[in-house]
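Cross-check.
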Amino acid sequence: MIWRSKPIGLALVGCGNIGRVHAQAMQRNKRCRLVSVFDPERERAEQIAREFSAKRVPADFKTILEDPEVEGVVLATPHHVHLEQTLQALDAGKHVRLSRPAGLAAYATSSGAVWCTNGTRAAAGHTTLREPAAGLSTATRFTKWMLCCI
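Predicted model, tokenized:
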């Protein structure tokens, strides 16, 4: 494993219940820092940003992708937007973590390109609200995996 001298900069997209689980995992992992938080309901994003000390609350997803401090994107969004958001993030050179990857499943099985492109990687995992400790563990394992990618 390659050790980094600075924490990986992450963006959280989607600030519902699952997004909060991921924010908690990022906060507990000292090798990560939450740089940016986006949600279409800006007030939710601002709340998560305050609670977890994120630097920015951009107005749109594109701004996150243009941010050089963001190295990875955690998508806690509805499954029907996963494919589009994942491809946009990978094209922008960002690593991606997905929650509930149903929207990506069909594409992922037909083409491995979505998983590794431009030196970036995407990982799909299930995070559950019924077992918050399991969800936090999954999110923590992801951040460790992402650190190995860069």
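The helical segments are 17-28, 42-52, 61-66, 82-91, 102-110, 132-149. Residues 132-149 form the longest helix (18 residues). Passed to J.P. for a second look.
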